[in-house]
Amino acid sequence: NALFQQFTARTTWEKVKSSLFPLLEAASRTGEILDFQNVLERLAFDFTCISVLGHDPNSVSEESAAEKAFSYHAEGVFYRHVVPVFLWKFQSLLRIGTERKMAAGRRTIEEFMSESISLREEENRKIDGGSHDMLSCYLRIVRGKCDQEIATISRQIWRDALLNFIFAGKDTISSALTWFFWVIGNHPEEEEKIRREITAVLGTGEWNSDGRAADEIKNLVYLHAALCETLRLFPPVPFQHKSPLNDDVLPSGHLVKRNDRIVLSFYSMGRMESIWGKDSGEFRPGRWFSDEGTMKLFPAFKFPAFNAGPRSCIGKEISFVQMKIVIAAVLSRFKIAVVDGDHARPRASIVLQLEDGLKTRVTKL
């Protein structure tokens, strides 16, 4: 939807300008070491909530209980996938360990969603037409329904769908951005290429103030290639598992029985020489360009950072727009220097994150 894309691009830029810039400017003045991963997680939560709910929790500036609750819940989901079922069910029954945090997080999330929906309903009643966030679009549809029972059922379904969009967007975007800044921090020559392209395409002024960012950002082709290369090496969702409903045979000839769990490692696939060649372990954005200089399009089953087939991520394009806006805005104004960049320990979680955060020093250009 063009209106939704424009709304998301504009609000993402406004969030970066109003919340991220002041934080980075303060860090550049004091010289403090900044955990940029934590900053990006809070930023992504804010602009994801704005796009989905039309509500800014402002967690970049202030600690947000809702943002932490989403993280606790994701941690609990991961825990349930790696421990025996009887163990997490026992902990859930006694309300102890990770299950206790998960239950508390669920209550906070439910309160957050209820308050956000009520606030948006009130605002949409006052403003004819309303905003172009997902929740406002849903409310306009419900307003036209005569059958209250159907509207109530629809509301329950959409509430869960909106919640799913927040979970899907919050951590994946922040993960991709975190690894991007870590990678270019260790490849200064690539950082300068990207910065030169940003200046050439967008200039140095308030390039998004007239609302053209969603269109102009598409011209940052080298940045797009660098992002794809980051996602190849560090996919936000590094593993996935599937279970067949019935006995089946894979194209490789392997027999899989009903309910067998098949684990797919997208992280490993991105580093396999048989798929990406002998330089598969290198960060090389140039692999995404043809000999004629045009962008290559690799099949989703080769580059599954956004999944593949019927379950491909529907937010792929808008995610690229948001990530490019953040990167272009930051690199055109600041130098993000990674501290101890050689040490990057992935955290055991659903989403690929750095165990010790992304320690950085910020310099204003």
Concise account of the structure shown:
With 365 residues, the chain is mostly helical.
For the structure shown, list the relevant keywords.
3-stranded antiparallel sheet, monooxygenase activity, 365 residues, mainly alpha, two-stranded antiparallel sheet, Cyt_P450_CS
Please identify, by name, the CATH architecture: Orthogonal Bundle
What class do helices, strands and sheet pairing give?
A: mainly alpha
Task: Order the strands across the largest sheet as they lie in space.
Answer: 1-7-6
Q: What overall geometry do the principal axes of the alpha carbons give?
A: globular
CATH fold title: Cytochrome p450
Number of domains: 1
Under CATH at level 1, the class stands as: Mainly Alpha
Count the helices. How many?
13
Please characterize this protein's 3D structure:
This protein is 57% helix and 7% strand. α1 runs antiparallel to α2. It has helices at 2-30, 36-53, 65-82, 85-94, 97-126, 134-143, 148-185, 188-202, 213-216, 221-233, 266-269, 273-276, 316-331; strands at residues 34-35, 239-242, 248-249, 255-256, 262-265, 334-338, 359-364. The model has no long low-confidence stretch (mean pLDDT 88). The longest helix has 38 residues, at 148-185. The chain contains 13 helices and 7 strands. The protein has a single domain, classed as Orthogonal Bundle (Cytochrome p450), CATH 1.10.630. With 365 residues, the protein is mainly alpha-helical. A 3-stranded antiparallel beta sheet has the order 1-7-6. The chain has a two-stranded antiparallel sheet with strand order 2-5. Strands 3-4 form a two-stranded antiparallel sheet. This is Cytochrome P450. Its cofactor is heme. Belongs to the cytochrome P450 family. It is a single-pass membrane protein. Keywords: Heme, Iron, Metal-binding, Monooxygenase, Oxidoreductase.
